[in-house]
Structures are given as structure tokens and as C-alpha cells.
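User: Quick sanity check before I run a bigger batch. Here is a single chain. Can you write out its predicted 3D structure?
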Amino acid sequence: MICRFCGYEFDENSLENRGCSDCGRHNCSQVHCPNCGMGNHPEFEEEFEFITKLKDRFKNIGKSSN
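Assistant: Done. Predicted structure follows.
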């Protein structure tokens, strides 16, 4: 998983308690980045990947029209 806040790449399955350092929420569905502590939703991983690819495609279209 890549943290959407700081860009740090980590294996969410290797984290104890999904990286949560007692955020106070029960049944927290977020995976907390071991680098910055930001909560990331693994359910949105595919959606963010799609948005990133789409954004890159628009960048490339803009470069080729110049």
C-alpha cells in the first residue's frame, strides 16, 4: 500500500493492529501509515489507482498537443 498523504510504500498485512496506535475508534477500517500515521482506506485503493492513471493520461495529452 502507498500512503496517500506522504507517499511511503508499506505492506499493510505486516502491521500489528493495521498500524493503529489507539486512535480511539472501535472497528477502525483504516490502515495507518507507519511513516506518518495517516489513516488510509484500503477499500479506496482501486479508485485512487484509477484516478492517478486518468490524471497521468490527461497530463500526457496536454504535453502532446503543445
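Residues 12-64 form one domain.

User: Great, the batch can go ahead then.
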